[in-house]
């Protein structure tokens, strides 16, 4: 029970921050998304996102901040193994499954459903 609660409130806090950025700072959803990705990347670069994942589980891996974490984490891991080339290959290796799934599901939804307009 505690694990679910922790994931719920940590993910909720991330969502509250995003909503406050829209309501208070008058940022567009695109700017909020980009900002949260960058925040996730910076937190991973500082070594702070992995402890958050260990603590909150899905509460930290489901929100968009984890995409920034994945980009930096993959780049740093592959850079250690393959040097400078690893930075680019690491980004693609870690994020390719999620991006591919998003493209495939978006295509299937577009083919299956007719938009109203």
From TrEMBL:
What Pfam family does this protein match (any one)? SpoVAC_SpoVAEB
Carries keyword Cell inner membrane? Answer: no
Keyword annotations from UniProtKB, A to Z: Membrane, Transmembrane, Transmembrane helix
Instruction: Kindly give the InterPro entries that the UniProt entry links to this protein.
Output: Spore_V_AE (IPR014204), SpoVA (IPR005562)
Q: Does the keyword Signal apply?
A: no
Residues crossing the lipid bilayer are 6-25, 32-49, 55-72, 84-111
Q: Which PANTHER family match?
A: STAGE V SPORULATION PROTEIN AC-RELATED, STAGE V SPORULATION PROTEIN AEB
Which named protein is this?
Stage V sporulation protein AE
Annotated source species? Desulfuribacillus alkaliarsenatis
């Amino acid at each position: 029970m505690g694990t679910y609660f922790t994931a719920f409130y940590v993910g909720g806090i991330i969502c509250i921050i995003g909503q406050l950025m829209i309501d208070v700072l008058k940022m567009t959803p695109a700017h909020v998304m980009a900002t949260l990705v960058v925040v996730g990347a910076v937190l991973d670069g500082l070594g702070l996102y992995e402890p958050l994942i260990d603590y909150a589980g899905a509460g930290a891996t489901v929100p968009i901040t984890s995409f920034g974490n994945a980009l930096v984490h993959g780049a740093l891991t592959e850079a250690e193994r393959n040097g400078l080339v690893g930075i680019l290959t690491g980004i693609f290796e870690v994020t390719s499954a999620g991006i591919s799934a998003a493209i495939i599901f978006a295509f299937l939804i577009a083919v299956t459903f007719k938009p109203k307009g």
